Amino acid sequence: MEELEKKLILQLKDCFVELIDDDFEVFHFERFVEETLKIFLNILGVEAVSIYKLEEWKRQFELVGFIQENEAPPPKIIPGTVLPNFINNSMLLQKGNLPSEFQDYSFLIKMIKKTEVTGFIAIKDKNGSNINKFTDEGLKRIGFAYGLYFGKVQNMSDIILKEKKYKQLYVVTEKFHSSMNMDNLLEEIVLSLQEVYPGFSYYLLLSQDNHNRSQLPIRDLEYDNENNIAMEAYVTGTVKFENSMQQSTLYAPLKGKQGVYGVLVVNAPNMVIFPKNEIEFITLLANTAGSALENAQLYHQSRKLIADLQLINETSHCLNSNLRLSETIHYMSNQIMKSFSAQEVGFFLYATNENIDKVLPGSTAFFSTKEAQTYIHYVKETIEKEQESLFIGDLPLSMQTETLFRSVMAVPMDLGGQLKGIAIVMHQKPYFFSFETFKLLQSLIHHSTLAFTNSMLREELEKMIITDHLTKLHSRNYLDEKINRSMKEDEQGTFILIDIDDFKRVNDTFGHQVGDEVLIQVANLIKGNIRENDVGARWGGEELAIYLPMVSLSAGEAIAKRLVEKVDEHSNPHVTVSCGISYWNKDHTDTYNYLFKRADEALYVAKRTGKNKVVTQEDSIKAS
After folding, report:
1. pLDDT at 134 over 80
2. How far is CA 514 from the centre of its chain?
3. How far apart are CA 149 and CA 36, in angstroms?
4. DSSP run (H or E) holding 378
5. Which of 122, 367, 540, 582 qualifies as a cystine partner to 346, CB 3.0-4.6 A?
């Protein structure tokens, strides 16, 4: 072997050993290339030396370092199209036999590790260089020697890089499992990818509803033509690939113990295939992320389940505390709007004819509008047809009104197989409610229907106690309570005592059934002649009464006269009524008994002086 050849190979070996002895932990591949380039240039005395390594996963040669005297840099990449011919040629390529990219060069010396090409050395000669002192066989031996050291250095660099990656994976794993916040976890996954693979592009396809509001590369996993391979990775739970000359794409499922939660998509530009070690690392990262996502999801599901159970428990406790029906509905509406972020909540009772009877007080205001009838009728007809609850993510556009509600949940209020009503929950955004929310609503309505029914029965019973069965006016006891309370709390009030004239003659002539119908007619005229807070009552027999809180005597007299006229005009068979009116105000000491006595005396005067008239307490005093 020539002396110069020995010197070159020995210096390459010394450079390799010195770099290892220096500090293996921070061994730099680039430093080895830089130092060996200087050795080539000094010993060979050539114009330029460039070193290329084979990137098999990209199917191309890449420039890893060069040193030269002129300013024209060598090509950075030798494309894969030249690989087959180049690899199959001899160890040493000289002018006339070089690829087009190296026409200005003198030699290309392959680097061989065992039997595989790992790269090549490109040499540009100049006058007076030492390269002519080397034989072809000597240059080949240099290629073998340098290929050996180059391959070992590359292996050591890969080991160090791999160790760093796995150390980072360990740190990342700790971070993944240190947080149960889904947004923070997704952000940590993306940051880890950016740190390990800064030259790659990637995004996460998540199978669960994603409400992440940050700018992270996250998309929903949906089945379409563009996502066939991603969906295949998700369904099979195995890594899938998509390769082209422009880039290679890896689809790694985010797997936990209980399922797959999405797919990590990694795009490697200018790569033909992914190296085995990178596939292994990305798969481990994806599995770690999948386990962390599963833990976070299970944590949030357990918290959600606890919150749901608390909601049901609190609601059941409140509903069983003997609330009024309006209070019960109002409480339920607030609970649903608060827990589900609903925009509208309505409760509807069914009448005996199976038509929705009324919107229950406590429902949101929208359901009392004409526009709401479109939604109510649609829900009612659909539930009656399908005999089950409704969960609609995107209501048909044909159903839409000016106020668009796209998400609708409706649950029938069923008790003992009998439909009592319907609960409707709506939001303007499509697919706003989750299926878990729908199941929770069903549970809430199931638990609350009995409370609704009990409230209705209790109020019906209370109404029966304070209501006259025949006339549907209030009972005398209820009237007494209202007058006594009013005389303690109000400023004034007017009491009207009413008697149907010659009622015995009606019973004798037409029978008691017709007499009852006459009583009902007069009672209906009374109800149509007074305000909501006024009290109409059956005093006893054919005597009826009206109490008008906060109404003056003159106003009360006008109401009584209007009632007398209406009875005279609209009764059938024809009857008339007489009215006696008494009045009180807080400026004079008065009692309920005395108030009634004055009205009774005034009524007596009305009956005695011709009937079919109104007499006030002042008129009564004058008449006496």
Report:
1. yes
2. 63
3. 10
4. helix 372-386
5. 367
Q: Which residue type occupies 597?
A: K
Strand 201-206 and strand 218-220: pairing?
parallel
Confidence band, pLDDT 50/70/90 cuts, at residue 353: very low
Amino acid letter, residue 580: G
Q: If we measure between CA atoms, which residue out of 213, 207, 211, 247 comes closest to residue 230?
A: 207
Q: Does residue 360 contact residue 348 with C-beta atoms inside 8 Å?
A: yes
How far is C-alpha 270 from the geometric centre of its chain's CA atoms?
39
Average confidence (pLDDT) over 474-500: 93
> Would you state the structure tokens that stand for residue 389, as one six-digit string?
């609850």
3-state secondary structure labels for all residues of 186-237: HHHHHHHHHHHCCCCEEEEEECCCCCCCCCCCEEECCCCHHHHHHHHHHHHC
Q: Residues 18-54: pLDDT tens digits?
A: 777 655 555 567 788 888 999 988 888 888 899 998 8
H/E element holding 49?
A: strand 48-55
Does residue 217 have a cis bond before it (omega within 30 degrees)? no
Q: The whole model's pTM is what?
A: 0.45
pLDDT digits (tens, 9 = 90+) for 368-416: 888 888 888 888 888 888 888 899 988 875 655 566 888 999 988 876 6
Q: How far apart are CA 114 and CA 68, in angstroms?
A: 29
Residue 104 has pLDDT above 70, yes or no: yes
User: Mind spelling out the 3-state secondary structure of 79-124?
Assistant: CHHHHHHHHHCCCEEECCCCCHHHCCCCEEEEEEECCEEEEEEEEE
Report how far Cα 303 is from the mean position of its chain's Cα atoms: 16
Residue type, 67: I
- Give the model's pLDDT for residue 56: 72
Helix (H, G, I), strand (E, B) or coil at 402: coil
Instruction: Give the lowest-confidence range in 422-426, 454-458, 474-478.
Output: 454-458
304: left (phi over 0), alpha (psi -120 to 50) or beta: alpha
One-letter-per-residue 3-state SS of 570-604: HCCCCCCEEEEEEEEECCCCCCHHHHHHHHHHHHH
